[in-house]
TrEMBL record:
InterPro entries membership: ABC3_permease_C, FtsX, FtsX_ECD, FtsX_proteobact-type
Pfam family, one: FtsX
The keyword Cell division is annotated on this UniProt entry: yes
TM regions (residue ranges): 111-131, 159-185, 205-229
UniProt record similarity statement: Belongs to the ABC-4 integral membrane protein family. FtsX subfamily.
GO BP terms, alphabetized: cell division
GO cellular component, one term: cell division site
Name of this protein: Cell division protein FtsX
């Protein structure tokens, strides 16, 4: 948001604070004074010698806004509101590029969800098959336990624990792979976004997301083990 050239630094900062009081509309605010804008422009453009010959600073104050909404209609309303402000000279906003970016992000999000679903199904099948092999390898022990009066719940419990640890180990491996992928791809992706003047940072899984991933992995392990044990344990009876 480019402010009027007649707006003082104090008035510009007050305008930025006014926008900051609307957390439902704006998630981030940065005020750039004319002097700071001149320094930044000089460093990026390489026209420092030319700018030093000017009698006054031609650059206005700028307020960089991070909107909360990703909807094009709401962003257009926000732009219209800002342009109607007396302190605003103009609003620079590449709505077309942002719509394309959000469309790509939405597609990527759905792809990740679908991929996660297929991988979860694969985890169930792999753990179920692993537990089935474990049951077959311990068939003689299971028959002896049932012969002396061991219940199905007693026999089932070790395999459920085994499935949980398999699932937890798989989730931990996935967490490590995600971290390594972000290290490998983070810088190129940030450079690509920066070339489109996008101020985005590629971030990994936070503490809450990491715990959720581990919980889902453990849960899938228990579910796969439960299905496998319920199917194969009933077929083993002492002879």
């Amino acid at each position: 948001v480019y402010l009027q050239s007649t707006i003082s630094v104090a008035e510009g900062q007050a305008f930025a604070r006014q926008l900051e009081l609307q957390p439902d509309v704006v998630s981030g605010i940065e005020y750039i004074s004319p002097a700071a804008a001149l320094v930044e422009f000089t460093e990026r453009s390489g026209f420092g010698d030319v700018l030093q010959t000017l009698d006054r600073n031609p650059l206005p104050a700028v307020v960089v806004i991070e909107p909360v909404s990703r909807q094009a209609a709401q962003l257009q309303l926000l732009i219209a509101r800002l342009e109607a402000e007396p302190a605003v000279e103009s609003v620079s906003f590449d709505l077309v590029w942002l719509e394309r970016l959000f469309a790509i992000l939405s597609l990527a999000e759905r792809f990740v969800i679908a991929l996660g679903g297929f991988l979860s199904l694969g985890v169930l099948l792999v753990i179920g098959n692993t537990i089935r092999l474990a049951i077959e390898n311990r068939r003689a022990e299971i028959e002896v336990v049932k012969l002396v009066g061991g219940t199905d719940s007693f026999v089932r419990r070790p395999f459920l624990y085994l499935g949980f640890w398999y699932g937890l180990g798989g989730a931990l491996s996935a967490w490590v792979l995600v971290g390594l992928s972000l290290i490998f791809l983070g810088t190129p992706v940030e450079m690509l976004l920066a070339s489109y003047q996008g101020d985005f940072v590629v971030a990994g899984l936070g503490f809450g997301e990491s715990l959720l991933l581990l919980a889902i992995g453990g849960g899938l392990g228990i579910l796969g083990a439960t299905l496998a044990v319920g199917r194969h344990l009933s077929r083993i009876e002492p002879s």
